[in-house]
Amino acid sequence: MKHSEFWRAVDTVFGSAYGRSLAQDLVLSGIGRTSAEALEAGVPPRDVWHALCDDTDRSEADRWVFRDDTRRHRRDTR
């Protein structure tokens, strides 16, 4: 997972305003930092994403939303 995929997943699952607020304010129990702090400190985005999903009780579908390849879907629908 890239940083851009992390932020796209945050926006998709939580909405842009609430998601950015969570990333800035919620200290992740498994990491001991906020998502933004963890990313800045070099924690892999995938680890941050899974910690955020754990702490906010997200569904499995939400947890793997970043795996949805929109390019593939566009190709398949042409």
Automatic annotation (TrEMBL):
Q: Which InterPro entries match?
A: DUF3046
Q: Name one Pfam family in it.
A: DUF3046
Q: What name goes with this protein?
A: DUF3046 domain-containing protein
